[in-house]
Structures are given as C-alpha cells and as structure tokens.
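I need you to check the entry underneath: sequence plus fold tokens. Let me know what the token row says about the fold.

>
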Amino acid sequence: MKRASFQPMPCPVAHALECIGDGWSLLILRDAFYGLRRFDEFLYSLGIASSTLTRRLNDLVAAGLLERRPYQDNPPRHEYHLTEAGRDLRPVILTLMSWGARHTSGSDKVALIDQSTGKPVALALVDANTGKPITREEHQLQLAENADELTQWRLRTGQSYRQADAQVHLIAE
C-alpha cells in the first residue's frame, strides 16, 4: 500500500519525511552510518524481505541520501554510500538514538562516546552561531512572508498555548 505524499505540504519537516520515507529507511541510514555498504549487509542487519530492502534503497538513492557505486562486474553488485545530504542526517540519527536509549527499554546497547575520553556524549541542540543551547524560552519559529494560511494558523495556535502555559507556570511559582 502506497502512503500519501507529504510533498504538497509547505513544511520542511514534511519534506524531510518525504525524502527519508519510513522507519526501514531510517534504519538503513543508521546502518550506513555504522559503515555498512552492501545489500547483503543491510539484509542481514535488518532482517527484512529483500524486495522491501530493494525498494527502500532505491528510494534513498532517488532522494539523494545514498549513492549507488559498483564494486563488482560479474555479477553486477553495488555498494551504497551516504551522500552529503545523507551525512547531514547524522545529528537526526544520533538524536533518535539518544532519545531511544533514554525513553525505551532495551535500547541502551550502543552509545556515542568521545574518542579522546571514552566517556558518553551528552547530545544537545545548540545555535552554531552563538553556542547557546536551543530552548523554548529563548528561541521561536519565524514565519516567512509568503507562509501559507495553514502554517500561519499552526504557529499562532501553538504560540497561544505556549503563552498560556507560561502564564500558568508563573502563577504556580
């Protein structure tokens, strides 16, 4: 069953999901970050049907997240390498890994460590310009001048809830 496309939605999150696809595609990308490259490696790691893997790899190549490179002529075989766009998803994959380790059971088998200290890394979203952590209190989304009505409504509605929550928080203190 083909899912509905997110492409018509004027939203960077929807467009990113259109490129990434689904959970299997995220796991393929995770494995590519681990260093896996070959079809049989992905197949072994994921335990999915080869037809499903073929579709997802083709989708990731078409989306520009993976690049197919030949490594054998007879029979023809290919490796899959992360493109620049694929490599740019590393913070997303690492954040999902950190979230999973924190909020789901049995997900603490792999951790990101600092190679020089051997200690686990505490991931944080920071402004690369200032080094300040991104917080709800100090940062907000800004609409483009040509934002569509639904996007404007979405941000206005969310902002009104955040303002109400902030007032309740102030009263509680």
User: Anything to note?
Assistant: The helical segments are 12-20, 23-34, 39-46, 50-62, 84-87, 90-103, 149-172. The mean pLDDT is 90. The chain has seven helices and two strands.
